[in-house]
Amino acid sequence: MMPVSENARAGDSQSISKAVAVLKAVADRPGCSLGEIAKQTGMPRSTVQRLVNSLNNEGLLTKNFGHQGIYLGMELARLGARVHLDARTLLRPFMEKLHEETGDNIDLTALEHGKVVVIDQIASNEQIRVISFVGKQHPIHCTANGKAHLSLLNPEDAEKLLKEGMTQLTRNTIVDSKVLMAQVAAFREIGLFIDREEFGEDACAMATTLPSIGGRQLTISIAAPRARFNRKEEHIKTALLAFRRDVQQTFGTSI
């Protein structure tokens, strides 16, 4: 039998989790009833009613919206307005762990005004490395990050960006948008996007998509010279997928 203090902590944690489940249910279906919340959360109606009353008292939910149903309260909006979401700050600990595991260049990129921009970066530990820096812009059609960003766009928006230009930078650069988007679709199935000397000679990279943070579309990549990339490719795949899984488990699909 657990000590009383541990029982109390477990009960508090369960209550918080249930309250969050109620808030998420109302966010998904504004104006829903107690019965609908109970059905969506799998909790007894009496439990839902108790939680809704408590959340209503705190201003996190409201039942006084001029008509029937339950809605998110204005206190949530007030709290949300005070949150400043900085992707670099939130993801830096995950990036440092990834760097410890792989040792090569890591770029965190955002799609800004149709441009793939490095917003944070950790340099390789190796003497022979792929060079990058914060503020650098990557072509969207021939980089691992770019392909990952393309996978997050609807086909019309992706095609519009590609029409702005698909410059042939190496002999491996794909300059046919249909061929490229077919490759992006195949990469999307495994969640990893690869550049094999398409942006620069003897430079390869692999990227994956991340949850959006503060409305920013994000990707993370690892880049290395071709020989080292080929030697470590399976390890890089495993590390990137674990990175994405850890970030999703921490932040969800978007914040």
Task: Give keywords.
255 residues; alpha+beta; 6-stranded antiparallel beta sheet; two-stranded antiparallel sheet; 9 helices; 18% strand; elongated
Descriptive notes:
- The protein contains 9 helices and 8 strands.
- The protein is of the alpha+beta class and 255 residues long.
- The strands form 2 sheets. Strands 5-4-3-8-7-6 form a 6-stranded antiparallel β-sheet. Strands 1-2 form a two-stranded antiparallel ribbon.
- A hairpin with a 6-residue loop joins strand 6 and strand 7 (203-213).
- The longest helix is centred in the C-terminal third of the chain and has 26 residues, at 226-251.
Averaged pLDDT: 89
Shape: elongated
SSE ordering: HHHEEHHEEEHHHEEEH
For the largest beta-sheet, the strand count, sense and barrel status come to: 6 strands, antiparallel
* Relative helix content: 40-55%
In short:
The protein has helices at residues 4-28, 34-41, 45-57, 74-81, 87-102, 144-151, 155-162, 177-190, 226-251; strands at 61-62, 71-72, 105-112, 115-122, 137-138, 193-196, 203-213, 216-225. The protein is α+β, with helices and mostly antiparallel strands and 255 residues long. It has a six-stranded antiparallel beta sheet with strand order 5-4-3-8-7-6. The chain has a two-stranded antiparallel sheet with strand order 1-2.
